[in-house]
Amino acid sequence: MFKKLLIANRGEIACRVIKTARKMGITTVAVYSDADRNALHVKMADEAVHIGPAPAAESYIVIDKVMQAIRDTGAEAVHPGYGFLSENRKFAEALEAEGVAFVGPPATAIEQMGDKITSKKIAAEAGVSTVPGHMGLIADAEEAVKISGEIGYPVMLKASAGGGGKGMRIAWDESEVREGFQASKNEAASSFGDDRMFIEKFVTQPRHIEIQVLADAHGNAVYLGERECSIQRRNQKVIEEAPSPFLDEATRKAMGEQAVALAQAVGYTSAGTVEFIVDGERNFYFLEMNTRLQVEHPVTELITGVDLVEQMIRVAAGEPLPFSQEDVTLTGWAMESRLYAEDPYRGFLPSIGRLVRYRPPEEIAAGPLLANDRWQGEAPAGETAVRNDTGVFEGGEISMYYDPMIAKLCTWAPDRAGAIEGMRNALDGFELEGIGHNLPFLAAVMDHPRFTSGNITTAFIEEEYPDGFGGVTPEGNDLQHLAAVAAHMKMLKEDRAARISGTMPNHSRRVASDWVVFVGSQSFPVHIDETDFGTEVTFEDGSHLKVNSDWHLGDRLFRGTVGDRPMIVKTEFIRGGARLRYRGADLKVVVRTPRQAELAALMPEKLPPDTSRLLLCPMPGLIVKVDVSEGDEVQEGQALCTVEAMKMENILRAEKKGVVAKINAGPGDSLSVDDVIMEFE
């Protein structure tokens, strides 16, 4: 076995690999850029080597710099993680030439499967179902339009070397092909250094389901079940689960066998993933093979008990797989939520900055694979596991140079309903402040009836949130329960204020019992009694809820029961009241005396400033180009400028007809959120 392993990556995946290597007794080496000097993976590794400036193109994907780090440290093997150099044939060849083991597949397999066009041809020859499309390279937008017409709309424009949703767009007509083709080429060139494109038929009502394969150099290959990855936004996975709620055993077996056949056709070794698109009739078609560890690999580990990173390392060291296909069993259900530094209230645009508060829920070990790195047999019914794979820490920075992922929050339970409920509670208990993040959106999806039923497709987010995410509005019992929590908090605050030392006898302050709780736009007149068994809140209709918790003033999490319901609520006192966050809802609550409530109803509403004549930058980013000039008349939907952030190009469009009065920023300018780009007459 190797004695020293270099991880040619950063962030959560580097930390993930270090954990397994440490368990195996292998010394680890981290590499880092200027932006990552104080990163978590650097702190966790036994050694760390600086490899260049912050941009990945000048550090993490420069093969010569990584190779020098290998020579300087004497590393015997390299784990590439995902992204960066993980699917770079030249990197694998450079390692081979140096006599260093690559914890991944052979360079030939990377080359054949890494190119989407070549991989589809090989898949067809291996008997794998494939999607209709144009396998040749496409010269320009006009040729793309012609090919798209022959295939039939809608079509998918894809970067040949793409991944992670970059360089990928759906086009429904000629105009969208023309516009999307060049933008996709630009993204592909920026992210992968390869702007080749291809086109395939876009299957409507599709599910994205992938098969995890594992193969060694001794001719053994297995599939470890499937992952449902249909909850996607802009072709980027957001929530994954294993197994899929849609597949039956026969389809799972057919997909798995085809995935193994494809792996064997290219002499594949190590862990890899074969992605399929599945229609409503369970017909499945090959999309691509990712010749690396997937972001969502933890859900497979949680239901199989197989540490994929460990098996990758052992295969790279020449060991055979320790089990056969007959030994693979799927136990329970696992969910993964990708926590991103992006603002769901601003169209999921990237957010950067300091993590002022970062307190993930406590990891709980259960299921076939304990949280992160240990083995265990089948768990007792009702037990739930929580696992959080991350590469950040409180006080750290989310950089503009890399992927916006903060963490991968995973739960496991004996069944799907239990895994979902576990995820709801884990999201409610995840404290994160300082940047925009998608926690509220993830919580909203976990409560969405369509998601809980398993009736999902890759269009779920687009169909269920067509106007973007505007938050969650609690209804009925949820509002009443939150009002009871607010009442409980208010009474504890008032009780402390009433405790004044040195008061004269019979002059102590009396805390009132009648209050009006305002939760968002709703109001609840209540009567509050403090008892030895908690706070009893009686509502106007005579119903009552008893609140029990160990919450104290200053705590940021309320954990307790309201009525008979366990609840975890994020709490924060703010000016004029408090802020409660629960199951995706973010509400201001105010508790007033009845007289204060009467007077508050007479106060005029303060209106927000008018920004209708301004184009504001919706995210921190770089102006790539400006499409209009001062004095131009623009139409609704017309492109105004392009802003690049987190390696993605975002086209800002006119919301209505108008005339450009002033342009305040140009190409190359770096802007913050809400900076004024241009003004209109």
In short:
With 681 residues, the protein is of the alpha+beta class. Helix content is 27%, strand content 33%.
Which short descriptors sum up this protein?
single chain; alpha+beta; 8-stranded antiparallel β-sheet; 8-stranded antiparallel beta barrel; 17 helices; 27% helix
Question: How is the secondary structure organized here?
Answer:
Layout: E1 4-7, H1 11-23, E2 27-33, H2 40-44, E3 47-52, H3 63-73, E4 77-79, H4 89-98, E5 101-102, H5 107-114, H6 116-125, E6 133-134, H7 141-151, E7 155-163, E8 166-171, H8 174-192, E9 197-201, E10 207-215, E11 221-233, E12 236-242, H9 249-265, E13 270-278, E14 284-290, H10 297-304, H11 308-316, E15 333-340, E16 342-343, E17 349-350, E18 353-354, E19 357-359, E20 369-370, E21 374-375, E22 385-390, E23 397-398, E24 405-413, H12 416-428, E25 431-433, H13 439-447, H14 449-453, H15 460-464, H16 477-498, E26 514-519, E27 522-531, E28 534-539, E29 544-549, E30 557-562, E31 565-574, E32 577-582, E33 585-592, H17 594-600, E34 614-616, E35 621-626, E36 633-634, E37 639-645, E38 648-653, E39 658-663, E40 670-671, E41 676-680
Parallel strand pairs: 1-2, 1-4, 2-3, 4-5
Antiparallel strand pairs: 6-9, 7-8, 7-9, 10-11, 10-13, 11-12, 12-15, 13-14, 15-24, 16-17, 18-23, 19-25, 20-21, 22-24, 26-27, 26-33, 27-28, 28-29, 29-30, 30-31, 31-32, 32-33, 34-41, 35-37, 35-40, 36-39, 37-38, 39-41
Helix pairs in contact: 4-5, 7-8, 12-13
